[in-house]
Amino acid sequence: MLTLNDLVGTKVILCPKQKFQANTNLYAVTLHGVEVGGLWIEHPALSEIVAHSVHKTVEELPKDPVFFFPYSEIEHLSAFSTRIDPKSLGL
Length: 91
Description:
The protein is mainly beta. It has a single domain, classed as SH3 type barrels (Roll), CATH 2.30.30. 11% of the residues lie in helices and 32% in strands. The chain contains one helix and five strands, in the order βββαββ. The protein has one helix spanning 44-53; strands at residues 11-16, 27-34, 38-42, 67-70, 74-79. Strands 4-3-2-1-5 form a five-stranded antiparallel β-sheet. Strand 2 (27-34) and strand 3 form a beta hairpin. The longest helix has 10 residues, at 44-53. The two termini are 26 Å apart. The model has no long low-confidence stretch (mean pLDDT 81).
């Protein structure tokens, strides 16, 4: 049986309840950690949002920042098949 902990370090498809980019509601994010209350994820759009809100450039942020996403803010999460390349889906 596949668990979220098995997916740490891989790309998964996240559908949040609120979009963080205007043109999509599905995001290929890197899963960095799993906790009781949510997930630690990495995605460039989140870095851009934070940089903008603190009036910095993405380059001024710590390298590869990760963000906590509570389960209550996630509509659904999907894992990639080992046969599917996320880039082929445009994600």
